[in-house]
Amino acid sequence: MSSEPASSASQQSPTSPPSPGSLHLPENRRVRDRSPSPMRGYLIPSPLPTRRTRTFSATVRASEGPVYRGVCKCFCRSKGHGFISPADGGPDIFVHISDIEGEYVPVAGDEVTYKMCTIPPKNEKLQAVEVVITHLAPGTKHETWSGHVVSS
């Protein structure tokens, strides 16, 4: 038997990863600017409230409520959510992909009708449900949920 220590790697203590401030880019690389996102600056609810996770009583309350009008401010199909600007003003309202009715994916400028539902757990924020596109934004390309592109 050998009295030598096992491997030198097993004796080293694990080190924490370097902090982002201590990392330096090579001189020939530059920092990329982030692309502007229409959803930057919005607080997205977490977990995302969907039609599937909403309680039956909340769904009934929303369906019995009044119908509101607004304009789609932004919507990201890949993320599955966006925001609606109410026609009467006020803060923008969150909309989830599961609450959009009809065959078209909303784009900025589409006129919509919707009903309102509160977002748990505190029920302080509002979410648009039963969203229907009433007028497509002119001069834009719209995509159906199946992927077909239509110009308006």
From TrEMBL:
Q: Which residues form the CSD domain?
A: 67-133
Checking PROSITE patterns in the record gives: CSD_1, CSD_2
- GO MF: mRNA 3'-UTR binding
For bias type Low complexity, the affected ranges are 1-14
Q: Which GO terms describe its biological process?
A: regulation of mRNA stability
Here the segments flagged for biased composition (Basic and acidic residues) are 26-35
GO cellular component terms listed in the entry, alphabetical order: cytoplasm
Which UniProt keywords are listed? Answer: Phosphoprotein
Q: Where is this region: Disordered?
A: 1-50
Entry's SUPFAM superfamilies? Nucleic acid-binding proteins
Which PANTHER family did the record assign? Answer: CALCIUM-REGULATED HEAT STABLE PROTEIN CRHSP-24-RELATED, CALCIUM-REGULATED HEAT-STABLE PROTEIN 1
Name of the protein this chain belongs to: CHSP1 protein
Q: Which organism is it from?
A: Ceyx cyanopectus
Top-level taxonomy = Eukaryota, Metazoa, Chordata, Craniata, Vertebrata
